[in-house]
Design brief:
With 359 residues, the chain is α/β, with parallel strands linked by helices. It is 52% helix and 10% strand. It has 2 domains: 16-238, Rossmann fold (3-Layer(aba) Sandwich); 253-348, Tyrosyl-Transfer RNA Synthetase, CATH 1.10.240. The structure holds iron/sulfur cluster.
Length: 359
C-alpha cells in the first residue's frame, strides 16, 4: 500500500494515483454550484468522502458539525488562511463549530516544538488570527484545556486501533505521533458524544496528504460503542509555496506569506515568486504567460475573492496583454491591504486569545 505522509511538506501532485488508490470521490459539478464558494467553483476542493449527507443538512437548514484543527507549531500563513476560510464558510452555513488549536499535537508530533509551553505561546497568535478571520470564542478550543470527557474518549479510541493497523496506514509507530493521532481522532469524533452536540454528520476539510487520518478516523468511528455518523471529509489542493514544488509551509518561510508578514515582506516575496512568465517581454506579448504553472496566479486563485478580477488576470495573462511585473503589482496591492487590516484586527483580539489559550 502506498503511504501519504500527513506530516510532510511535499505537495501531492499525482492526484489520479491518489484517487485510484484510496477510493476518493471527485467533487461533482452539481455540488460545487450549490455551495457557490470560490473554493468549490475554482476546483480547490477536489474530492470528498460522504459529503452528500452534510450537503443535505445544509440544504434543509439542519445542524451538522464543522470540525477542523491546526497544530500550533508556527505562525499562520496563507495556506492556513485557506483552511480557516473554509471553516468560516461552513460556520455561515449554520454548523456547530469545533476549531481545535492543537497544542499537544504540535509538541508530540513536531521535533521543532520543544515544550507544551512553547506550543501554547505560538497558539496565542494563532487564535488571535483565527478570531480576526471570522471565528468567535465559542468556536475555538485548545486541546490542552479540554474537559476530562474528551481525554477519556481519546483513551477509549486507543483500544480500537491496533499497532499493526497504525503501522500499515502511517508506516511507523512513533509514540509521539501515535498519541497525537488519538487526539486527532477524538477531535473529529467527540462532537457527536451526548455531552457535546450529539449524533449528526460532520465535515472536516483536509489536504489529500492527510487522507490516512480520514480513513483511520472513519474506521474507528464505526468500531466504537456509540451510534456515530461516519464523519465526512472534503479534500482541497494545498496552496503551493512561492517557489516550485512544495506546499506552502512554515518550514520554508521564504516561500510562504505569513499573516504577520509586513506589507514590505509580502511585496518582496511576491516580487521574487516563481511565475509562468516567458523569458522575454516580447515573447510574452506574443505567446502569453503560463498561469497554470504560476505561483502568483495560484495565490490569486485561492485568495482573490472577486471572480471578475481573477478572470481579468487570467485573460490578460494568456493573451499577453499584461506582463508579470504589472500583474504582480495587483496581487501586492490587495494582499498588502488585507495583511494590514488583518493585523489590526488580530492585535485587538490578542487579550481574548490569551484568555482562550491560558484560561
Ligand atoms: Fe503569472 Fe501574471 Fe505572469 Fe501570468 S502575467 S504568468 S498570472 S504573474
Amino acid at each position: 500500500m502506498a503511504k501519504i505522509d500527513p506530516w510532510g511538506s511535499n505537495a501531492v501532485s499525482d492526484y489520479d494515483h491518489v484517487f485510484k488508490e484510496f477510493g476518493l470521490t471527485h467533487f461533482p459539478e452539481s455540488m460545487k454550484k450549490q455551495l457557490g464558494h470560490r473554493f468549490f467553483k475554482r476546483n480547490i476542493v477536489v474530492a470528498h468522502r460522504d459529503f452528500e449527507k452534510v450537503l443535505e443538512r445544509i440544504k434543509k437548514k439542519k445542524k451538522f458539525i464543522n470540525i477542523t484543527g491546526i497544530a500550533s507549531s508556527g505562525p499562520y500563513h496563507l495556506g492556513h488562511k485557506a483552511d480557516l476560510d473554509l471553516f468560516v464558510f461552513f460556520k455561515k452555513c449554520g454548523a456547530k463549530n469545533y476549531f481545535c488549536v492543537c497544542d499537544i499535537d504540535a509538541y508530540c508530533s513536531r521535533e521543532k516544538i520543544k515544550s507544551i509551553a512553547q506550543a501554547k505561546e505560538i497558539a496565542v497568535q494563532n487564535v488571535a488570527d483565527a478570531l480576526a478571520l471570522g471565528l468567535n470564542e465559542k468556536d475555538i478550543y485548545v486541546q490542552g484545556n479540554k474537559e476530562k470527557e474528551y481525554y477519556s474518549f481519546a483513551f477509549e479510541i486507543g483500544k480500537k486501533i491496533t499497532a499493526k493497523t497504525f503501522e500499515a496506514i502511517y508506516g511507523h509507530l512513533d509514540l509521539g505521533k501515535v498519541s497525537s493521532n488519538l487526539l486527532q481522532y477524538a477531535d473529529i469524533l467527540h462532537g457527536q458524544l451526548p455531552e457535546y452536540s450529539g449524533k449528526m454528520p460532520s465535515v472536516t476539510g483536509i489536504g489529500l496528504d492527510q487522507d490516512p487520518h480520514a480513513r483511520a478516523t472513519r474506521d474507528v468511528a464505526k468500531r466504537l460503542p456509540y451510534d456515530f455518523e461516519t464523519p465526512s471529509f472534503i479534500y482541497f489542493r494545498h496552496l503551493s509555496g512561492l517557489k516550485e514544488g512544495r506546499k506552502m509551509s512554515t518550514s520554508h518561510p521564504e516561500t510562504a506569506i505569513f499573516l504577520n508578514d509586513s506589507e514590505a515582506d509580502a511585496k518582496k516575496k511576491i516580487n521574487n515568486c516563481f511565475t509562468g512568465g516567458r523569458p522575454t517581454a516580447e515573447e510574452q506579448r506574443k505567446l502569453g504567460g503560463k498561469p497554470e504553472i504560476c505561483k502568483k496566479y495560484e495565490l490569486d486563485l485561492f485568495h482573490l475573492e472577486s471572480d471578475a478580477k481573477l478572470k481579468d488576470i487570467l485573460e490578460k495573462c494568456k493573451s499577453g496583454k499584461r506582463l508579470c511585473g504589472e500583474c504582480k503589482k495587483l496581487t501586492i496591492d490587495y494582499m498588502g491591504k488585507f495583511l494590514k487590516e488583518h493585523q489590526t484586527k488580530a492585535k485587538k483580539n490578542l487579550p481574548k486569545a490569551k484568555k482562550i489559550v491560558y484560561g
